[in-house]
Q: What sequence folds into this?
């Protein structure tokens, strides 16, 4: 299970953005609780995300639970209506299309879900679940449909003879393969994987990730790979975007991000993750973030990370940093921080040293 | 709590208004001509027109509707077509009969139903439980009128043949006139209504008691050393009572508007019989008045249940 | 990669034939419920009773032909005594005759046709209506849900019998009206159950998955959600049949259901009320038929519920371990 499963270097295919997100915002209105319905409050799950996904790459999306990763995934696949902003597929803005006009794009933009139990209808046979994309779009009828479904089952490493079984008769890993087969049925170009392995045993996780890599090579897929487990993302991704409270705070090539994190949050996140190979971490500093993750209903002013950031200055409380490569003079990565870390710089500022 | 109450009351008022409108629409937009029906087949056109005028049926529909609502709001339900008595007077005559029937029946079915249900649930799979469930199945499947007839046949007629006249077969004596006779005449109707209704209460009580007694907190209470009796009655029954209260409210509310079947079988001159008579004579104001009254009883009963609910179960208060 | 065994041991144990070579068939929850039902003596017994009643109803004309007694045929000489009183059970009239000298047996059999027809058709209508409206209310939420739910609340809070009477007085009594009235006052409780189920099921990820592959609202409602709410619906439907049968017989008894001379159990019992002193059989046979039918359906309903939810408590059967 090496990560280099026939993956072309990301730089070679980097030229073409397949999917472009511009200032994507998703707010959920909250039920007003007071006697008199006062100012309506919103949960700012995704609050201004801009991203490019390049053809053929795997873009990892990491962040703590509740940072808005899954919401962003559902905005990209249009399972949620955007509050504002645009999602463009190729040159087409798909964020405002009606259900009917969205159909052709739905076929190119598929999703694998987190919960291998909840994402498969317990009352339907596996064959019918995998055939759902055909049935929903009126494609491939009868025997042809069955043949295609069995091909898909073979493709993802399932026994095609299990066509007539129910999801309950499969293990978690097999169920994720079923979900994958369903997502691949319409020959999509982009597959959004929403924590596809986080519900699985570690030994099964590797199988699924290798399968994803193999399929990417075979079918020329582009992945958006969401996870909260850093080692999984590192293993699977070409580039990684780090999310915090509905925003992307840093985006960079995988190795750059892991070896030279620029954003204090990224660094804290990396240092919190256990790593099997101590050489990969260039210093043994462990940063434990203090305080709770602030509520996405009332996010902090200025930089959203400032209440927990050991490097925060007064500027951070008032000025919202922009995700930009200018912050760090490196053209191929971007960070949203007023005081990004330099190579190997210690997280703790001198101020905290006892004087 | 206050908001919840206000919302429930508003809903009740809306239901009553909808019912009033629906009934009004049913009868006044319906194709058949009331005046002609009342006048009889041989009546001349002038007579029909006169009757129509007298009843106010020649006015525009909206005016009729408005006046109907306005009067109903003031407790005036109009006058019976057949004997020109105010509908409220007719209701005043029928209500004591129905109320007597429902009150006695309700006490009986509560006692029979809940106690049987509790006994069955505290002795699961015993002979007691089996008899209770068999009882429940038998009377749950039994249509009210059939039980009434069977009771008449067995308790009235067979006993009557043997010279025992404990149970009169029909008729009603007012409570104020002769309390003993009142009760005697109502015994069979009470039994009928109570047995049929109690079946549901056995099911409800047994089912929810078994659910509650299987809960962790009951086991905790037992583990804390509380006696079995205390656990069953303090904790179990209290929780199991919530669905019973709901059902009780609905049953009483529905029956107060007219225990139609029971009154019909035993010839009791209650609201149910009034409806049936009005129906056979196409006496629209009476039918409308009775439907409105029956709906009002149900609405009020639901309201009372909601209030009781929030007293019994503090969790409901919040929502 | 290992294959997991079938989810339940029971499922494997009851499989009779080996699976066909090319496909391996899973057992649907329906099949499992059916297997449980087949092993439930009460269920088998009550189904048998229901089957017999259905057969008797279907072959009522055959029986009538064999006996030579039509359902509305009046035997004024053989079927009534000299004083005009019904004749008791005997060799000519197995169940005796009624006040007009008609054969009670034949009329009871013909009555079964009406009861079953109304019971099944009205319950079916109520379930279809309730499922559609409950699905729509639960699935669409928002304004659609508010309107539909309030409507269900209103229907549920009507005193149904008196309303039925008012409706019948307007439309005139008939079989169709009876069915319509019964269905109208029954669908709302189905709708409420379905809505509650849909509210929880539509939050499941598989609904999102269906949307992501391009399924429309109708497809999601009927292909993805409906199968998951069918079990409680079927349980409720079996419980609804006896209620509808009682409802119909009550309407007939009050003279606002199916009109005489058509034989229905309610009609017969209504006519018998003037004769119970002299002709017990006139009350007993239609009464027994009615009671046995409703009891059989109620028992079966209880078993069906148990088969779909084996952990619940049974209502009518204190079941042995």
A:
């Amino acid at each position: 299970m090496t990560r280099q499963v026939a993956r072309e270097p990301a730089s070679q295919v980097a030229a073409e953005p397949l999917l472009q997100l511009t200032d994507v915002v998703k707010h959920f209105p909250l039920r007003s609780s007071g006697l008199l319905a006062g100012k309506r409050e919103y949960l700012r799950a995704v609050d201004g995300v801009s991203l490019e996904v390049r053809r053929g790459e795997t873009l990892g999306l990491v962040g703590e639970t509740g940072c808005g990763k899954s919401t962003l995934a559902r905005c990209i696949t249009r399972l949620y209506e955007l509050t504002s902003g645009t999602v463009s597929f190729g040159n087409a803005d798909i964020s405002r299309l009606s259900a009917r006009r969205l159909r052709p794009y739905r076929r190119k933009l598929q999703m694998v879900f987190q919960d291998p139990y909840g994402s498969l209808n317990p009352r339907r046979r596996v064959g019918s679940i995998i055939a759902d994309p055909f049935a929903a779009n009126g494609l491939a009828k009868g025997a042809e449909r069955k043949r295609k479904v069995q091909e898909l089952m073979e493709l993802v490493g399932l026994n095609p003879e299990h066509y007539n079984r129910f999801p309950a008769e499969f293990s978690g890993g097999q169920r994720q393969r079923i979900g994958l087969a369903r997502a691949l049925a319409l020959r999509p170009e982009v597959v959004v994987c929403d924590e596809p392995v986080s519900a699985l045993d570690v030994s099964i996780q590797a199988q699924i990730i290798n399968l994803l890599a193999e399929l990417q090579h075979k079918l020329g897929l582009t992945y958006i790979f969401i996870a909260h487990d850093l080692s999984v993302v590192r293993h699977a991704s070409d580039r990684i975007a780090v999310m915090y409270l509905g925003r992307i705070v840093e985006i960079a090539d995988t190795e750059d991000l892991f070896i030279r994190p620029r954003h204090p949050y990224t660094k804290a996140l990396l240092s919190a993750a256990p790593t099997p190979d101590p050489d990969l971490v260039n210093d043994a500093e462990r940063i434990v973030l203090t305080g709770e993750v602030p509520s996405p209903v009332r996010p902090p002013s200025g930089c959203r990370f400032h209440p927990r950031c050991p490097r925060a200055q007064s500027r951070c409380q008032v000025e919202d940093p922009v995700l930009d490569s200018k912050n760090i003079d490196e053209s191929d990565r971007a960070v949203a921080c007023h005081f990004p870390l330099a190579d190997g710089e210690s997280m703790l500022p001198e101020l905290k040293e006892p004087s | 709590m206050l908001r919840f109450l206000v919302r429930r009351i508003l809903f009740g008022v809306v239901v009553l208004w909808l019912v009033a409108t629906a009934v009004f629409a049913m009868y006044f937009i319906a194709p058949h001509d009331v005046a002609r029906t009342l006048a009889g087949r041989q009546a001349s056109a002038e007579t029909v027109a006169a009757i129509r005028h007298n009843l106010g049926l020649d006015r525009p529909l909206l005016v009729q509707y408005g006046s109907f609502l306005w009067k109903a709001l003031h407790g005036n339900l109009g006058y019976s077509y057949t004997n020109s008595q105010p509908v409220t007077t007719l209701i005043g005559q029928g209500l004591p009969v129905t109320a007597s029937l429902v009150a006695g029946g309700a006490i009986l079915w509560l006692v029979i139903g809940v106690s049987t249900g509790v006994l069955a649930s505290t002795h699961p799979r015993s002979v007691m439980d089996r008899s209770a469930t068999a009882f429940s199945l038998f009377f749950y499947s039994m249509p009210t009128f059939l039980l009434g007839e069977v009771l008449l046949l067995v308790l009235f007629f067979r006993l009557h043949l043997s010279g025992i006249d404990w149970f009169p077969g029909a008729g009603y004596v007012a409570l104020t006139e002769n309390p003993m006779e009142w009760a005697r005449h109502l015994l069979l109707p009470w039994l009928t209504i109570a047995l049929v209704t109690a079946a549901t209460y056995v099911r409800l009580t047994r089912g929810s008691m078994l659910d509650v007694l299987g809960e962790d907190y009951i086991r905790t209470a037992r583990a804390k050393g509380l006696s079995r009796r205390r656990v069953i009655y303090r904790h179990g029954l209290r929780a199991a009572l919530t669905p019973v209260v709901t059902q009780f409210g609905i049953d009483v509310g529905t029956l107060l508007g007219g225990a139609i079947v029971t009154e019909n079988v035993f010839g009791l001159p209650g609201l149910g019989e009034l409806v049936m008579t009005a129906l056979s004579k196409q006496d629209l104001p009476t039918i409308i008045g009775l439907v409105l009254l029956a709906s009002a009883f149900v609405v009020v009963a639901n309201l009372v249940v909601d209030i009781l609910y929030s007293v019994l179960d503090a969790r409901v208060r919040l929502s | 990669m290992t294959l997991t065994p079938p989810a339940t041991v029971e499922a494997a144990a009851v499989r009779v034939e080996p699976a066909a070579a090319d496909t391996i068939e899973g057992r649907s929850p329906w099949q499992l419920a059916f297997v449980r039902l087949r092993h439930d003596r009460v269920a088998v017994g009550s189904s048998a009773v229901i089957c017999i009643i259905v057969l008797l109803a279907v072959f009522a004309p055959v029986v009538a032909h064999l006996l030579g007694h039509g359902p509305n045929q009046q035997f004024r000489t053989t079927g009534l005594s000299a004083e005009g009183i019904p004749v008791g059970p005997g060799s000519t009239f197995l169940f005796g005759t009624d006040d007009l000298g008609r054969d009670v047996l034949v009329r009871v059999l013909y009555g079964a046709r009406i009861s079953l027809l109304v019971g099944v058709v009205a319950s079916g209508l109520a379930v279809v209506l309730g499922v559609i409206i409950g699905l729509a209310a639960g699935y669409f939420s928002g304004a659609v849900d508010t309107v539909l739910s309030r409507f269900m609340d209103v229907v549920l809070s009507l005193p149904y019998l008196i309303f039925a009477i008012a409706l019948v007085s307007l439309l005139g009594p008939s079989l169709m009206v009876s069915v319509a009235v019964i269905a109208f006052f029954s669908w709302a409780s189905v709708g409420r159950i379905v809505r509650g189920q849909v509210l929880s099921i539509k939050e499941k990820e598989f609904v999102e998955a269906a949307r992501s592959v391009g399924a429309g609202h109708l497809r999601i409602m009927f292909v993805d959600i409906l199968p998951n709410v069918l079990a409680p619906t079927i349980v409720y439907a079996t419980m609804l049949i006896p209620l509808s049968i009682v409802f119909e017989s009550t309407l007939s008894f009050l003279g606002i259901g199916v009109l005489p001379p058509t034989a229905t159990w309610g009609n017969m019992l209504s006519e018998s009320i003037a004769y119970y002193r002299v002709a017990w059989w006139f009350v007993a046979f239609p009464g027994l038929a009615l009671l046995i039918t409703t009891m059989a359906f109620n028992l079966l309903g209880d078993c069906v519920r148990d088969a779909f939810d084996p952990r619940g408590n049974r209502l009518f059967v204190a079941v042995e371990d």
Remarks:
- Chain C touches chain B through 48 residues (CB under 8 Å).
- Confidence is low (pLDDT under 50) at residues 1-22 of chain C.
